Amino acid sequence: MLINPRLTDHHGISASQADLAFAIPFFNEDIPLYLDPFLLWKSPSQQDQALHTSLINAFNNLGYLAGKGKDDEAIQTLIAASECDEVGLGSSAARKGKRIGAKKAEEVLRLFQSVPQYQSRGFRHFEEIQFYVDGISKDRISDIACSFLKSFLIDFTAEQCEANGIPTQYCNIKHVYDYRKQAFSSETAKLPVNPQTSTPLILVPKRWLRFTPWLNYDDYFKNHCPQDDISRIPEELTRVSVLNYNRHHYDVVDHYVAEKERTFEDCKNDPLFSQIPVLSAKRKLASIKKLGTGKDDNADIAYEKAIGELFPSLLYPHLDFAAVQSRTDSGVSIRDLIFYNNRNDEFLKEVYDDYGSRQIVFEMKNVKDVSRDHVNQLNRYMTDSLGKFGVLVTRNPLSKARMQSTVDLWSGQRRCIITLTDADVEQMVELFESKQRRPLDVLKKKYVEYRRLCPS
């Protein structure tokens, strides 16, 4: 079974996250990013700008409905828009969210009456609701945007699935917004599905995603909120008191939004993974080299932590980081790094073709000498989706006897275990700094050296 499976890996599609236009969805958990409507507003793409206009029109129509006495219709529409499970964005560990209640929806809609500017012209950025209503944050902003844009996202998903060979099937999708009827309805479309739950999956363009929306409460509170005007007693400056103040001082929020619009060029989408700076990589290496072997002073934990922070950056984008995996073998606690094998390199494709490794495991051992038990522990783990290729990350080269143990595994079972030492890690960091070659080439070199020792 794949560890922390993604859509592309499940279907055997060899594509790294860096090469795709969408965020690859997980089956078991959300992607920790959010759709930021501001990225559509500031986009040079006319399509994105038009989608933002449609999004704002859909939201402002709720105020129109409420103003015409159709409160129940407006409330039910906002409740329906408040959650979009199909996109899998946010922080849920189960890809399942919860919609807002009627009282919270009423509180949002009341802004169209209580703030004269919204009553007369509506919102120009509906994210502003978070500055007035408690319990509205980045996940809710993202879900509302995804819900109103779901029709486009369905078409985008179909296009990306066809381009990348992702299987689809007919699904019934609820709460698809119809801009002509200005209401949600159900629709049947061909989409990929979660094999564990049979629920449809909708893909989202990477260019729309951020960890935190450009307009957000924390930034407003820290840099723009007139805190002394609200309360001269810091202990009484609560979020609720700030939100109440904002409702009666629209100009403060308006100035903040105008300032964020003026600096729109600084608003960039966030990548799903960011490599650590070269300086940080060199510091991690220095800390590793200073560590003693064994468990004294928690050196083993410090070693695992440093390697765990270093390798995802060194091996990106050729290997996408999947998870830090803890396991127990004969009473011994073992920490592994698991990477998705994207097969976007000849060496990685060979690892997949020859050893069946859809994912690659790196077992970390802060020991002076690797023992036979260490080799056997990793060997027992290399089954199913992890295949028959594994990497021992340890401090020193293997002894002649231990190296022969790994060669015997290849001879008898065609299982491959290669070793990365402190010297190898140092070389990887040097390549990471120079950019002249890839740190992955060190792994490839170690594999070539290992195979030379194996009988043909």
Description:
It comes from Methylobacterium phyllosphaerae. The protein has 456 residues and is an alpha/beta fold. The chain has two domains: 7-266, no CATH class; 278-453, Restriction Endonuclease (3-Layer(aba) Sandwich). 46% of the residues lie in helices and 14% in strands. It has a five-stranded mixed β-sheet, sandwiched between helices. Strands 1-4 form a two-stranded antiparallel ribbon. A two-stranded antiparallel sheet has the order 2-3. The chain is elongated, with a radius of gyration of 26 Å. The mean pLDDT is 93.
Which characteristics define this entry?
456 residues, alpha/beta, 5-stranded mixed sheet, Restriction Endonuclease
Layout of helices and strands:
Blueprint lengths: L6 H4 L23 E2 L1 H5 L4 H22 L3 H11 L20 H8 L1 H4 L1 H6 L16 H11 L1 H15 L4 E10 L4 E9 L17 E2 L6 H7 L3 H4 L8 H10 L1 H13 L15 H13 L8 H17 L3 E11 L2 E10 L4 H10 L3 E7 L6 H10 L7 E6 L5 H14 L2 E5 L1 H13 L5 H14 L3
Parallel strand pairs: 7-8, 8-9
Antiparallel strand pairs: 1-4, 2-3, 5-6, 6-7
Element order: H for helix, E for strand:
HEHHHHHHHHEEEHHHHHHEEHEHEHEHH
Average the pLDDT over all residues and give the rounded result.
Answer: 93
| Cα radius of gyration in angstroms | 26 Å
Share in helix: 40-55%
Give me the oligomer status: single chain
Gross geometry: elongated
